[in-house]
Design goal:
The protein has helices spanning 2-32, 36-72, 76-90, 93-108, 113-133, 141-168, 175-186. It has 187 residues and is mainly alpha-helical. The protein has one domain. α1 runs antiparallel to α2 and α2 packs antiparallel against α3 (76-90). The longest helix is centred in the N-terminal third of the chain and has 37 residues, at 36-72.
Length: 187
Amino acid sequence: MQKVGSQIESISWMTASGLSTALSTFVGQNYGAKKYDRIQDGLKVTMLLAIFIGTLATFLLVAFGEEIFAIFIPEEESIAQGADYLRILGYSQIFMCIEITSAGLFNGLGKTYIPSTVHTILTSLRIPLAYWASQPQYLGIDGIWWVITLTTVAKGIIMVVLYIYLKQKDKLYDYSEIQETERVAEC
């Protein structure tokens, strides 16, 4: 059930991963060329696409999860469980698309430690939280899906907050690295 559900859900995260890869390349090229305005323009367009994909995925998974799951699995009990899985994870799709796309920005700027740290910490927290939430006296199997959803929402929010913070503190771009590259080029 979870395998089929994750394959259905993968449409949105694979699309977001493609946007992230494209943004990373675009940002890296423009960062090296010192075209910071283009980075911001590219980020806006890519983020709008990611939010659109996430919104569409949220709508489809929440509103039509049962119908979508029924295409792949005919058993009623599996359809009900699969629909719950898709509905619960559906709520996090916008945030997942934002998180993955934001990673492309940070990767393109050479700040790969930011998305990897956020991802590693919050994904690692899923294990103890899912163990707790999945206990029969709490949410049962749905507790696992809610933990995945909530940590995904947190990752999306944290990535945006980090971007805004670094931009406001003028720490988004590493100007010393750029100046060192210029100095070496002049020699």
